């Protein structure tokens, strides 16, 4: 819903898309797509103005990876074998592998910017639309989202130790 004149923290906390539409117009949709790529998003992204509202489809694995970058002080972790490719563990085999997939850190967001973003995303869980994602034993940061008529709903969040994306819908 439209909440009138509010700051970016409140717009994030209460999911006021009108502020994000204005922000996308200010920074440019191409810059939004570029930052998404820096965070590790590999899905096709068009630089339409609606990109700032989540109109471009991105899979949950990529979203969890992007949010893990926020939790890791703006550092995206790639692998030495797969690089910046999305991946999931599908099986674990016993044996001696010659080639190890060592982590490769890539600073894609300034640490102070990541800390500011984490602070804002924590308000979503403490006071905003993500209250049900709160944990009793640690601080959680994250963001909720829905499509029109609640056809799809998601939460992407993190603690310092874990990032997760949950999606339900059509």
Structure description:
It is a single chain. The chain contains five helices and five strands. The chain has 170 residues and is α+β, with helices and mostly antiparallel strands. 21% of the residues are buried. It has helices at residues 8-13, 17-27, 29-38, 60-71, 111-127, and strands spanning 75-79, 103-107, 141-146, 152-158, 163-169. It has a three-stranded antiparallel β-sheet. Strands 1-2 form a two-stranded antiparallel sheet.
How many helices? 5
Compute the number of strand runs.
5
Major sheet: arrangement of strands: 3-4-5
- Averaging pLDDT over every residue, what do you get? 90
Uncertain residue segments: none
State which percent range the strand residues make up: 15-25%
Structural class: alpha+beta
Our Rg estimate from Cα atoms comes to 17 Å
For the sheet with most strands, the description reads: 3 strands, antiparallel
The rounded distance between the terminal residues' Cα atoms is: 22 Å
């Amino acid at each position: 819903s439209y909440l009138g004149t509010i700051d970016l923290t409140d717009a994030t906390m209460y999911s006021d898309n009108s502020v994000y539409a204005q922000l996308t117009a200010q920074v440019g949709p191409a810059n939004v797509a570029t930052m998404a790529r820096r965070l590790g998003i590999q899905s096709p992204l068009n630089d339409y103005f609606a990109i700032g509202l989540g109109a471009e489809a991105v899979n949950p694995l990529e979203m969890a990876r992007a949010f893990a970058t926020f939790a890791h002080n703006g550092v995206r972790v790639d692998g030495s074998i797969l690089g910046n490719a999305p991946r999931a563990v599908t099986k674990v085999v016993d044996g001696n592998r010659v080639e190890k997939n060592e982590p490769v850190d890539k600073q894609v967001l300034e640490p102070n910017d990541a800390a500011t973003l984490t602070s804002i995303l924590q308000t979503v869980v403490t006071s905003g639309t993500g209250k049900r994602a709160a944990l009793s034993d640690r601080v959680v940061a994250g963001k909720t989202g829905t499509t029109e008529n609640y056809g799809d709903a998601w939460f992407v969040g993190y603690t310092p130790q874990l990032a997760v994306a949950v999606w339900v819908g059509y």
